[in-house]
Request: fold
Amino acid sequence: MGARVSSPPPGSGPAPARFGQPAVPPGPRTSAILFAWESVGELRRTLPALLATAVDEVVVLYGGTDGSREFVEGLRDPKLVSRFEERRLGKAEALNRGVDRATGSVVFLISADVRFEPSVLEKLASGLGGGAGVAFPRVVPANVRGWVSRLGALLWQLREVELEDATSSELPFHGGELQAVRRELLDRLPPVVNDDALVCLRAHERGFSLVYVPEAVVENTVPETVAELLEQRVRINFGHFQLRELGYAPATLETVAWRHPGLFLRLLWRGILRRPRGLGLLPLLVLLEAWAILRGFVDHETRADHLHWKLVRSGKFAAS
Reply:
């Protein structure tokens, strides 16, 4: 079981989903929603592996002109429900359309650009017992091989320490990349960038607990060029301003530093101890993040379009 980020409401929820051999009584029906755009290599790696798990249904929302359609339509699996997107409308709207088609009471929200073992789904589903509404994994970077990717990895390391400390904090933390969510919590999303954070914040608002499951490990990649790393951080910070405009208060590193400086210093110290080699990059990371926050604020005030961001290409997993 992972760390609970907030206190659960009274009463008990559904039993955790089960995978592998059928159990008696059986767990609830499970659905996975997979998102991809111009990512045929990632679909070739992730989709067959996902169909091979015991998830009852796989809904894939995808698009592009890179051969994705030919690949997906060539699959013949009764669990597969696919929708080809003629236009790129953004992940939040794709999630809405995926939820409309999902029939499971436990839903996994998955980006095609991650890599994980099938047991991760079982671990996350098991975290949805009691009053838990959303469970999310530990995300680790798989391509730390240059100073730019080390910057991104350091940021993720600080975020990991922040989530580990969530058990003693009342802040509404959130996690993404892959989430297990109760179907009842997947209301329609407005056009926001940080859709994964909004799912968590809405669950927290309704009194459900959020569960961080560090033993469920998901690999992703970080950008390997300065331009792509900065663009990614601008977009994420733009998304934080969107959430604040909607009345939510996501617990980001900068808000923790501003409102809870003692907690922030403790997290920073623990992060440095865990990755001492990152100490020399810390001033550069602070400058990069400060610039990204400023740019994100300006873009939000000028109503820039970050729903259709430029896809990150550096450091991505090769197709297997």
In short: The chain has ten helices and nine strands. Confidence is low (pLDDT under 50) at residues 6-25. Strands lie at 3-4, 30-37, 57-63, 80-85, 106-111, 115-116, 132-141, 178-182, 209-220. The CA atoms of residues 17 and 23 lie 10 Å apart.
